[in-house]
Amino acid sequence: MSARLIKRSTALTITVGALLVFACVGTAAGYLWTRGLGTIDQSPPPGLPQSWPSQNGQLPHPVPKPTGEMVTALPEPTASNALCEALPQEQWDTVLGTKSLREIEWSGGCHVLTDRLDIRVQLSLPSPPPEGAQQVPVGQRQGQLQRLPDRLGATVAVRLADGPHSETSGVRPQLSVNINQRATINRADLPMDRQAVALADELIKATTAPGPALPAATAEGTISSQPREEIPGSGVLGQPWPIVSWRLCAAMAKEAHTSPQAAKAKFEGTCVVNGVHAVYRLDVTPRTFPGKLAGLPASVEGDTIAVRLSEKTTDTVTFTNPGKAMTTAAFQSFVERVVPALTQS
């Protein structure tokens, strides 16, 4: 074989080999790219739903903004509304980088959608950090960040209250922000871990502004009948459990002409003054209120009086007069004087 033919054969072999290597590298790079290392999904975003809220949700409504550690003691669904309404619409859109929709889910928590993201924000009991979670700063606190494989989502969990009082029944001291993709193909330009941390930070700042700490509770569940600091307002609608108890006690003590220190408050919306008991609850079962008391729907049955505090909610205070601490007539008059203070903002 001539030297010229040998040279041409060698050159051809080198060229083919180079092309094969290039193809293999390109295939591997493409695989890694689609595994979350940089490609931009060319498929159109799922878009926002035409109908909102969803079948299992309802639109949030404004509630009093909690301060201090009180967000952790909000009853459902007040807590979900407080989380959804913590930021104005413009701020939600800014943090998430696009237009968003919010709803309260029947199971609890605030549900948020963008064209590509599905987000759930809720309060819960503390749980051990999942395996592989990373400790990250969230505002002035330490949170646990967990990334889903292939950058498909991220969850940040932050504890908002510490100490023995945070273990009291009715307290859910852990804030969780969970972000997942709605699109099926990964996008590297959706930094969901950073967005989860940024959103948690904004929500914490909005719901834990300077304010009261959770009160310490005894083994019997009683708390001080008065807060350590002045808390504006006197109503109980949309308030955390301890504030409900304090305001029940303040209104009852005033109308009973006794000292607030003589009232016996419990953590979850309960107070006893001069033998009369008051319990605040969010009724979840149908209930009839055939009468009126202080202009509000009421059920009056001798020494048990239930009053629904608003036509738009199920918030109810039930007063009982066990052992005839007051005469029936005096008891009904007493309740009628107490109730108006509970509805004031």
Task: Indicate the topology.
Layout: H1 3-37, E1 57-58, H2 78-84, H3 89-96, E2 101-105, E3 110-113, E4 117-124, E5 134-138, E6 141-147, E7 153-159, E8 174-181, H4 192-207, E9 222-223, H5 241-255, E10 264-266, E11 270-273, E12 276-282, E13 291-293, E14 296-301, E15 304-308, E16 315-320, H6 328-342
Helix pairs in contact: 5-6
Question: Could you write a compact summary of the structure shown?
Answer:
This protein has 345 residues and is α+β, with helices and mostly antiparallel strands. It has 6 helices and 16 strands.
3D structure, described in words:
28% of the residues lie in helices and 24% in strands. A hairpin with a 3-residue loop joins β10 and β11. The chain is an alpha+beta fold and 345 residues long. It has six helices and 16 strands. The chain is elongated. The strands form two sheets. The chain has an eight-stranded antiparallel sheet with strand order 1-2-3-4-8-7-6-5.
User: So what's the overall shape?
Assistant: elongated
Total number of strands? 16
Compressed to H and E, one letter per element, the order equals: HEHHEEEEEEEHEHEEEEEEEH
Give the terminus-to-terminus CA distance: 102 Å
Residue fraction in strands: 15-25%
Helix share, percent: 25-40%
Number of helices: 6
Largest sheet: 8 strands, antiparallel
Strand order of the largest sheet: 1-2-3-4-8-7-6-5
Average pLDDT number: 84
**Which structural class do the helices and strands define?**
alpha+beta
Report the C-alpha radius of gyration, rounded.
Answer: 29 Å
